[in-house]
Specification:
The structure is a homodimer. With about 210 residues, the first copy, chain A, is α/β, with parallel strands linked by helices. Chain A contains 9 helices and 9 strands. Chain A is elongated, with a radius of gyration of 20 Å.
């Protein structure tokens, strides 16, 4: 269940709404806040396991700071699983072409796979971004697209793999390729394979190819 | 200020932490939840205007359900402003090449611009995704990359523009191009221009070209 709540811009609004959601037995899985302009704020919630969604809606709407509540489609439904591509501009743009074209083929059959990217330089910045992907919602696979990645980036890859994120690496210098789930030489193919690994409508199974290099 | 909180997986944990943040005078701008496995949960918060960040940290850490708290770099710092590219696979993959290459040139100079995409078909799905971009954090510009977009997609574009998101459209059939901030014929150029419009290190000013077609 996902909904937007327009509220007055007063301190403690989020605490009040969160309290009501808790009292209705629901688990909050995501909260965002947009439009902090003027004297109203727009909160966006995704919650699970509400016993009575209608009662929860009514209880939130009856809070004095709440102006309006509107059901929305969840980010999972709209944007689905995410493949994240990080690295050098030249390689990222080649990987993402393959990934977007492959995601198109699955989304046409009813899936939702999105492909998100950021071109970055420097071991510190890339390692930081790798670690941050584990805090983003809906991330299924990370593609490392560069010519040289090692050191702390390798540590970060080990950490995010432990948190359940698949990691595909281009064939490149440095130790990242040694710790990835899969190594692919051609960037377009790397993008396609990354999407196939997370797509329910594809047959590529990481358990059958883990540790291999193509 | 951004931090992760590892907590026991008990109902009301989020309500408790949110309450403490409120009591310390801070505004929550983002909350995410990851790793709902086993009996621990990882919450991620971004908060503004905490009077005393050390005291807030200590108060959260002292909650009985809290196992650990760790400072993290914010998503704004790591992934920065977002350019979102929606539409057909062929066009999205061409736009994103231009956008990623241009983002690379700005990120090398210290900015953080990320380029996020999803290939989709159908008026209803695309309109839903356009509207959802206004609920995503950090979105600065939306690029509509297709051959035919109109109807409810056009309504959705008008709505998100009103919420402060810049909209670039490819030259295409349908009414979306009529309501965009900017229309660009070449997809690679559309991606480059979209990134230039949001980059602080670029000189392209939407106020000087709004409504034009290139």
């Amino acid at each position: 269940m996902a909904f937007g709540v327009e509220t007055l811009d007063q301190p403690g609004v989020l605490a009040s709404v969160t309290r009501v959601i808790y009292e209705h037995g629901a688990n909050i899985t995501y909260v965002g806040m947009t439009e902090r302009g003027g004297d109203s704020v727009r909160l966006y919630f995704e919650v699970e396991s509400a016993a009575d969604e209608g009662a929860l809606e009514a209880a939130i709407t009856s809070l004095p700071q709440v102006v309006a509540l509107q059901r929305e489609p969840s980010f999972e439904k709209v944007f689905g699983k995410r493949v994240i591509v990080l690295g050098g501009g030249a390689q990222v743009s080649a990987v993402v072409m393959g990934a977007v074209n492959e995601a198109d083929r699955h989304n046409i059959r009813g899936e939702r796979i999105s492909v998100d990217t950021i071109p970055l330089i420097g071991e510190e910045h890339i390692a930081e971004a790798v670690r941050a992907t584990a805090r983003l919602p809906r991330v299924a696979c990370l593609v490392l697209a560069g010519s040289l990645m090692g050191g702390d980036i390798t540590e970060a890859v080990v950490e995010v793999r432990r948190k359940g994120i698949l990691v595909v690496s281009l064939k490149m210098a440095g130790s990242v390729a040694d710790v990835a789930d899969l190594v692919v030489g051609d960037p377009l193919q790397a993008g396609v394979m990354a999407v196939m690994l997370v797509a329910s409508t594809a047959k590529l199974d990481i358990e059958r190819i883990r540790g291999r290099s193509f």
